[in-house]
Design brief:
single chain, 222 residues, mainly alpha, 69% helix, globular
Length: 222
């Protein structure tokens, strides 16, 4: 055996092993968006009258509380863990909406809230006041979220604007007693579900090695 071959063998033996490939970074958007969609679709079906909550009180509670509320909270926690504060805030506020919406439905459907003065069940006007306050609060927050995230790609802004329109329509429908606005709110609900489904499809594709889909440029670039 030659000296050269012995030296090459010694170098090969001494060479450190190649580092293992790093695990892919967690993308909380996958779980957050796919668990958001069933509740969004259910809300749209409720608005257009497919789900009759008069005959089926509480029919939305499990899906809005657990499919969206719980799993969006988990997605927000994952986003915080990987240092993505913006995604955590987005999923966090949507989790807050869906969870509190489920609790509100449970409270109103089961008579948990009573008139403190009379000890009797709430009147229609009192229920409407609770609902309008709830909707106004989240409408203002979602508008704020839309304005604060204008540096995101355009597709996100479109989705958030459709959410804003849905909440404005629902708020006016409740406060003005205009039930004709709810089917329109259902259409905008389905529209933002389509937008978020598009974003979800892009996230899955990139995670699995595909090309990024067009998201449009942000409205605020500086």
């Amino acid at each position: 055996m030659s000296v050269e071959s012995d030296t090459a063998g010694a170098h090969a033996a001494a060479a450190p092993p190649a580092p293992a490939a790093a695990a892919p970074a967690a993308n909380p958007a996958l779980m957050g968006l796919i668990c958001f969609l069933p509740s969004g679709i259910t809300l749209g079906l409720w608005f257009v009258g497919y789900l009759d909550t008069t005959a089926l009180p509480g029919g939305m509670i499990p899906i809005v509380t657990f499919s969206a509320g719980l799993f969006l909270l988990l997605s927000a926690m994952v986003a915080l863990r990987v240092g993505d504060s913006v995604t955590a805030a987005i999923f966090g506020v949507f989790s807050a909406f869906w969870t509190s919406f489920g609790v509100l439905l449970m409270a109103l459907n089961n008579g948990w809230i009573i008139d403190a003065g009379t000890g009797q069940a709430l009147s229609t006007e009192q229920v409407g006041s609770i609902q309008s306050t709830y909707l106004l609060s989240f409408t203002l927050v979602f508008v704020l979220l839309t304005l604060a995230t204008l540096r995101l790609p355009l597709m996100f802004t479109i989705g958030f604007v459709l959410v804003d329109i849905t909440f404005v329509l629902a708020y006016i429908g409740v406060t003005a007693g205009n039930a004709g606005l709810f089917p329109i709110a259902g259409i905008t609900t389905f529209a933002f579900c389509v937008v978020f489904a598009y974003i979800l499809f892009d996230a899955f594709g990139q995670t699995l090695g595909g090309r990024a889909m067009s998201m449009g440029g942000p409205l605020v670039k500086s």
